[in-house]
Amino acid sequence: MHDMSAHAVHHGAPTSFIRKHIFSLDHKVIGKQYYALALVAVVWGMVLSWLMRIHLGWTNFAIPGLHLLSSTGAPGNIMTPEYYLQLMTMHGTIMVFFVLTTAPFAAFGNFFLPIQVGAEDMPFPHFNMMSFWVTFVAFLVLVSSFFVSDGPTLGGWTQYAPLSAVGSVAGPGQGLGVVLWAASIAIFCVGQLLGSLNFITTTLDMRTRGMSLMRLPLSAWGWFITSVMALTAFAVLMPACILLILDHVAGTSFFVPSNLVINSQLLPHTGGSTLLWQHLFWFFGHPEVYIAIVPGLGIVSHVLIANMRKPMLSHRVLIYSMGSLAVLSYMVYGHHMFVSGMNPFSSLAFSFPTLIITIPSTIVVLIWLGSLYGSKLRINTASLFALGFISMFISGGVSGFFLAQPSIDIMLHATYFVVGHFHLVMAVAAIFGIFAGTYFWFPKMSGHLMNETLGKIHFWLTFVGTYCIFMPFHYLGIAGNVRRYQAFTDDYLIPLIPVHKFITIAALLTGLSQVIFIYNLIYSRFKGAPAPDNPWEATSLEWSTATPPPHNNFGDTMPVVYHDPYQFNVEGASTEYVMQTSPEQYANPHEEK
Amino acid sequence: MATTIQHPPKIEPESLLSQGSGNGGWRNLVPAGGDLRRTKFSPPPASTGIWVGLAAITMTFAALTSALIVRQGAAQDWRHFTLPPVLYLNSLIIVASSFTLETARRRIASFMGGLRDQAESPARWLYITLFLGLLFVAGQTVAWMQLKSQGFGLATNVSYSFFYVLTVAHALHVFGGLGGLVRVIGKLNHSVLRRSTLDATSRYWHFMGGLWLYLLLLLWMKL
Amino acid sequence: MAKIFAVTIILIAIGSAIPIVMHTWHLPQDISTHGPLIDEQYSDTMAEAGISFLASQLLLAFFIWKFSNVKPGTKTRNFPGGAMGLVIAAFLLVGTEVLALGVFGAKAWASVYFTPPAANAMPVQVQAGQFAFYFRYPGPDGKFGPLHPDQINEANANFYGLDTTHDQDSKDDIVTAEMAIPVNREIHLLMHSKDLGHSFFVPELRVHQDFVPGLDLSVHFTATKVGKYEIVCTQLCGLGHYNMKAYLEVMEPGDFDNWLKQQAALQ
Q1: Per the CB < 8 Å rule, is A155 touching C239?
Q2: What percent of chain B is helix, strand and coil (3-state, nearest 5)?
Q3: A167-221 residue pLDDT tens
Q4: So what's the ipTM on this one?
Q5: Are the beta carbons of B45 and A123 separated by less than 8 Å?
Q6: C-beta of residue C149 within 8 angstroms of C-beta of residue C133
Q7: I need a labelling partner for C238 at 20 to 30 A (CA). Which of A279, A390, B22, B146 fits?
Q8: Residue of chain A with shortest Cα separation from C37
Q9: How far out from the chain centre does Cα C205 lie?
Q10: Which of chain C's residues have a Cβ under 8 Å away from the Cβ of A371?
Q11: In angstroms, rounded to a whole number, what is the distance separating the alpha carbons of residues A330 and B79?
């Protein structure tokens, strides 16, 4: 058969280097490619954040070599105000799109979703390959904006119109820089739509014998729910980006209102709606936050269970909670716009679902805590990061109580309180999820064990470091410290600069400690001890196949599933844990009825 | 291209599909000693995939629709204009193409179901569909040229902007459907056509027709 | 290792709470009539969020301490009450909590946004542009003259695009770079953006509102304390965003009248 749309299982193992490692149809290779892309992007994004942090602490500090990155942006190695904003925009865009979306969702999801459902591959492998390469092109387009004459856009990752829509008259980077940004994001949307199409279809159609939906591991559920969100959210962002590009290059007036005078020029546009961009963007933007975090919820649950040696108190409740988070995420996006000039009644209308979203989040946390009770917790790097994730998720979550209320948002909107909130709950927590997943699955992905000692050192530095960075953000916000300022010149902000210096030092040290992780990753990939098939004594399907899995995942015989995914310490079973594929019958299985 | 098929076309019979060959279908086999409670039939991935894809397209056009409504209400500069009449002809063409495609699909399907010995020239109806699809796109191009020649460009007024954005976005999606049709024809002639591929392509095509009628109504009401 | 981890979590949780409890950093003092409701809402939320934060972090630490590296023979146990108990607890505790916050928060919000300005409120117009605020007082006739964007000319200090030769209403309009208002008098602030999205934020005044280009909004407030405060822009508006600010001076009514006369003389 040569049917592209339906011949998932029948592509044979490729032999040429290009088909094997570059234009590969194998979901495992594509997953690793996504992981590598995210790794490059996260290092890049982190270096940008260092530059920003140094500038915030010591505004006139000459950063050696900075003029190599941009001679106009950093004359004499001192960052200009616009260059700070450009770095900030790129930091946000790279991190949100190319790290927090690609790593937990596209990378791990690609590698493990088909294995966890018991499939030989995704149903549309060509789409899958395109998904990665389209995303890669999107990344190149974004990075290329560093090299155009006036640099990348400075409009922030939210690209509010009209700043983003009026062209270079509004400032450096607002011409070609924005067009490249919007093109990159539109291309990225295409990549993620193709990916989500595969994820959803894999989950619905490719499950192996006996693998009912409720028998899917929680990580698979995380990816499935995320892919539904990604499909709907990116399908909205893409046309929004195209309209933005048209405002730029074709002179249309979707987002640019009449009578704007910028730099003493009266613009020709008429009647556009700036709030329209915000509505379209946040309709995507809020689900995007959950796209970043829901895979983490799944991965962390999955990692924890294997290390608690008992299943979650309720598989079903966790799944329903993740599902309600996804559904609610579409009803709350207006909380980003409380003081934006949106009708104040709408603000209230968005406030209540935002508050309600704390209920499923609380249920998730309580189920984790309740499941920890009476467990036999194994402490290793993976479980440390998973537990660290819970701590970060709680810390970042409680600040949501404040931001959900429009009245308090009057004080906290656009301050560092918001920055602290979303970094903890979405960025750092998601990164902890990625770390937990990496330390847990690396043996399966590479065939080698990671170094535990280095892993634990990495964990301690990262855990303490991130709290030192992001907790003080909340204090700054309470004191009214406005975000997106390249320097603090206001009378009431000057006393806060020492706090910024502390954060900068913490950020540099925490960032530096990630070198340990990258070293561990590369060293273990080549020199690590060979990994057994099931190093963690876990039960789901990825552990019943070889390490690393063969081209078609399971070799000659496809697995048959007899149990719910987490059969640990089951009464009457002959072993401490029972694989999903074990036909063993016993009296009291951990089953969801 | 032969319009009557001398040899039975290489169409994969349905019976093979329900057993599946790895596309989810073999989940339906009885596991030896396994728990059968939850195993049930599931369609081949292309049938699910097409619905997922159509859902994404629906979201995109829903977003554009809401943008249109919000933008129209945002300012007084909205300019109403009469749609180029050729659009109504195009609508007839795309509706007709759905019928021709459905004819082709039924003929092939009935062959797969074993009702007839030979499919009666299914490829001919596919070619007609393809032709009508191209005619539709040509007709849309005529509409764009007409507006353009009257001096109404993309940036003349935002109502024109929306007209161009919506119709061009739809036309690009129609090209996707045309590509699908070409693939179906190629498979019918040269290799094996799966029922699910045919069904997915035709669903996509019908959806494009429905989407066009919706867009026409929207444009007619709002522009 | 697990025990050190548990202790670390406890230390971080308590350490994070200390600056909040000690008020090391706190909301700026409130000088508005509507502010107390917001501040009260803030403190209530802080109490509830703080308790949730400490309770869950401590519980996490305690469970990690207690259930890690248990003796090999130990059996796993389930949480008494099971998942259902936790779900009900979440609905009851968090549900009532967020309902209370939502309802009281709605009241605080309504007090700011759902009340029309008083009839005798003093109108002031603020115009935001890259990267400065300008303020306009209607003058003795009480009317603002119309704006002509094409006549904006910064060189002539015509920041608003007023046509004082033709428009009668514009002739006595007073345009200033600083905002002054009388204490204890309601102000109706009309917001206009010349170019892009900006925001008007005076932390002490508990007023924070974006400028929407193409859509003129208004807010109203009453300041209760004489003093000089900073107005900052919080909506990213370009390279000079960090430096876009102006001063708000709250004055005794007599001082304000004198100030306005001085400014009128400068026009």
Answers
A1: no
A2: 70, 0, 30
A3: 999 988 899 999 999 999 999 999 999 999 999 999 998 999 889 999 999 999 9
A4: 0.96
A5: yes
A6: no
A7: A279
A8: A407
A9: 8
A10: 79
A11: 32
